[in-house]
Amino acid sequence: LWFHVDAAYAGAALVCPEFRPLARGSERADSFNFNPHKMMLTNSDCSALWVADSTHLVSALSIHREYLPRVKDSTSFAKDYRDWQIPLGRRFRALKLWFVMRMYGASGIRAHIRQRVEWAKWLETQLKADGRFEIVTPVVFGLVVFRIPPSALPAGTESAANRANTELVKRMTADGRVYLLGTSLKGMNVLRPAIGSTQGTQANMDLLLEVIKEFATAVVAESD
Prior knowledge:
This is Aspartate aminotransferase family protein. Keywords: Decarboxylase, Lyase, Pyridoxal phosphate. InterPro entries: Aromatic_deC, PyrdxlP-dep_de-COase, PyrdxlP-dep_Trfase, PyrdxlP-dep_Trfase_major, PyrdxlP-dep_Trfase_small. Its cofactor is pyridoxal 5'-phosphate. There is one protein chain. The termini are far apart. This protein has helices spanning 36-39, 54-61, 94-130, 158-175, 202-222; strands at 4-6, 31-34, 48-51, 134-135, 146-147, 182-185, 188-191. The longest helix has 37 residues, at 94-130. By secondary structure, it is of the alpha+beta class. The chain folds into two domains: 4-97, Type I PLP-dependent aspartate aminotransferase-like (Major domain) (Aspartate Aminotransferase, domain 2), CATH 3.40.640; 112-222, Aspartate Aminotransferase, domain 1 (Alpha-Beta Complex), CATH 3.90.1150. A three-stranded mixed sheet has the order 1-2-3, with no helix packed on it. A two-stranded antiparallel sheet has the order 4-5. Strands 6-7 form a two-stranded antiparallel ribbon.
């Protein structure tokens, strides 16, 4: 059984010591990956992968052809990464990540991530204070999952809440000032802003909250 940890979005936060306890146990994994383009200042696409024992990966994916000579010197510094994947080659994605690390350093990357988490906590506080919204899952990183709950609607039912939240996403998307997606969680239609943009500002957060409240007011008023 292969144990893989897909830390796609949250993995970048492990550069901050305060978040590392959340990954306790991942050292037992056979492989671990995360996407620096999601919260680590790197443009899309970029994925970082670690494997505990690369021989398992190589034995599963390697091919042997006469026109593909191999370097048999096991002491060579160069690794033959063509056997780590299905295609024999790939784009040089590591270069842009190297530039990010050289330009920002560990302290700069930590500051970027902590600011996004701080904004997410701010948004959580503002939505809770409004009274018309429910925070559905704990806010740990930059993801805030919320909805208009049944208690905020005249009908007071889950079906009415699902319709209202679907309509809220639809209207905000059509408006175009902010881009916000919804999803379904345990039968609930919810909204899920992910705070991670490299160019994000507090002004962006203020606008996001303003637009959410504006359209929530209209949706609640028109709800059956």
